[in-house]
Amino acid sequence: MVAVVDYDAGNVKSVEKALDKLGAEHVLTSDPEVIKIADSCILPGVGNFGDCMDKLRSAGLDKAVKDFAASGKCFLGICVGLQLLFDESEESPGVSGLGILKGKVKKFTSTDELKVPQIGWNNVFNVKGRLFEGIDENTYFYFVHSFYLDAADKNIVTSNTSYGTDYDSSIESGNVFATQFHPEKSSDAGLKVLTNFLKIAGEL
Amino acid sequence: MLTKRIIPCLDVKDGRVVKGIKFLNLKDAGDPAETAAAYDAQGADEVVFLDITASADSRDTQLSWVRDVAATLFIPFTVGGGIRTTDDFKAILREGADKIAVNSAALMNPTLISDAAMKFGSQCVVVAMDAKKREGAEGWTVYKNGGRVDMNIDAVEWAIQAEKLGAGEILLTSMDTDGTKAGYDLELTKAIASSVNIPVIASGGAGSCKDFYDAIEVGASAVLAASLFHYKELTIREVKEYLKERSVSVRL
After folding, report:
1. From A48, which residue of chain B is nearest by alpha-carbon distance?
2. Per the CB 3.0–4.6 Å rule, which of A56, A80, B73, B88 could disulfide with B83?
3. Contacts of A115 in chain B (CB under 8 A)
4. CA A181, CA A79: separation in Å to the nearest integer?
5. What is the pLDDT of residues B79-93, one digit of tens each?
6. How many Å apart are CA A110 and CA B117, to the nearest integer?
7. Where are the domains positioned within chain A?
C-alpha cells in the first residue's frame, strides 16, 4: 500500500490517477499513523515551499515523513516534494525544510531568454540510478517550477537538467527518491519512472 | 533544453468534443478522454479544453468529463470556459486538471487572478485573452464574452497586469487571424511575448508548419491549434519534425 501524503498541495489527484492506472494500491492520507504503516510513501508537489512546510508541520506530517524516510521503506518526493527534503529554499528565507538531505533550493535567474517559471518538457542527462532503469539519456519529462535543487552531496544526484544553469533534477539516496519533474504528467516516460519506483518498493 | 510546446485545443459542449467553424455547425467528435488520449499518443505536449456549454447548470457534467480525462491522460491539461470563482478553480483542479484558463471573468474581476494564484499557485492560472487590432489606431484591445464585447483595454497593458497579478501563462488568441489559416498574428504575439516574462501560448490562425515556426521565432513558448489537428490537415508529429529540422527544440 502506497501512502500519498495529503497536505492540501496541488495535483494529488494526478498522482492517484497514475497509481490507479499502474494498478498500485494506494491511500490518500493526512494521518501520520496511516503513513507509518504504509509500505511506501509519495510526497507530491506544486506549491510554495514555506506554505507547504507550514501545512506539513501543522498536521504533524513533517515528523511522519522524516520517520518514514528513516524507516528504510521506499519514499518518493515529487516537485516541491523533492525540494522539501532539503534544508532551505530561497523561496521562503528563514523556513527550515525537512532536512532529510543536505542542500539548498535556489531561484532561477529570470532573463529575456529565460522565462520563470520553467513550464514544459525538458530533458534529463547524466542519468543513473534505479528510477531510470530502461530510460534513455535525454528523455523528456514535464517540469513546472521556479526554484531548483543544488544538492550538497552530488553522489545522490541521478539526473541533471539545463535551464539557464545545469541543476539537479532527481536524486536517489538509499531508499529516498525524488524528482523535480512530474512523472505523473510525463506520459509514457513518466509512467515508467513511477513503475520503477513501485517495483523497487515492492508495490508491483 | 526546454522544448517548445504544441498544444491541440478541444471544444467541449455538454460533455462531448465538438467540431465546427467558429462555433457554427457543431458536430459531435467524440469523448473528451478518448480524443485527448489520441493526441497524447501523437505527441501532444498538453491539451487545452474549452468548455463552450451554454447551460448554467452544467458544472456536474464538466466535473464528470474532467474526472474521466484525468484518469486516462498523463500529460498536463488545461480547462477553460465559464470559470468565475476560486471555488470553481478548486472543484476542477480537484478532479485532476492541471491548469485553469480564465478570460472574461478575469477581465471583470482581475483579483480572481491573484486570489487563484495565492491559493493554487501561479502555475495553474492561465489568463486567456482575445485581442483585436484597434481600428485606425496602433495596438490591440482585449474583448470579453467570446470576442463580443470590446473592453477598450490595451492588450499589452492587460498582459503586463495579468503577470503582476500572478498569472503563470498567457493564452493569446488573435481575433483578426483566428480561423483564417493565414498564420498567427506575429506582430501581436511579439508585442505580448516581449512585454511579459511568463510563457505566451500563441493561438489563432495556424494553417501550415511554417506558421508554428514563425510564432515561436517571435517569442511564443507554445503554439495552439484546433481545426488543423481535428481535421487531420497536419499531425502534431509533422509539425514537430518541421520545427526540429529548423533547430527548434521539441519533444519527439
Report:
1. B121
2. B88
3. 197-199, 221
4. 6
5. 999 899 999 999 999
6. 19
7. 2-200
Q: How far apart are CA B123 and CA A185, in angstroms?
A: 14
Q: Does B201 touch chain A (CB under 8 A)?
A: no
Cβ-defined contact of A21 to B168 (cutoff 8 Å): no
B28's grid cell:
459531435
C-alpha cell at position A108: 532561477
ipTM reported for the complex, 2 dp: 0.91
Cβ neighbours, 10 Å, residue B162: 27
Contacts of B70 in chain A (CB under 8 A): 13-14, 17
- Exposed, middle or buried, B138 (CB in 10 Å: 0-12/13-18/19+)? exposed
Coil/strand/helix, residue B111: helix
Closest CA relative to residue A197, chosen from A129, A100, A149: A129
Question: Contact B98/A11 with Cβ under 8 angstroms?
Answer: yes
What is d(CA B155, CA B35) in angstroms, rounded to the nearest whole number?
33
B96 contacts in chain A (CB < 8 Å): 13-14, 17
Instruction: Round to whole Å and give the CA distance between A32 and A34.
Output: 6
Q: Do B74 and A119 touch (CB under 8 A)?
A: no
Which of A110, A117, A123 is nearest residue B123 as measured by Cβ atoms? A117
pLDDT digits (tens, 9 = 90+) for A121-162: 999 999 999 999 999 999 999 999 989 999 999 999 999 999
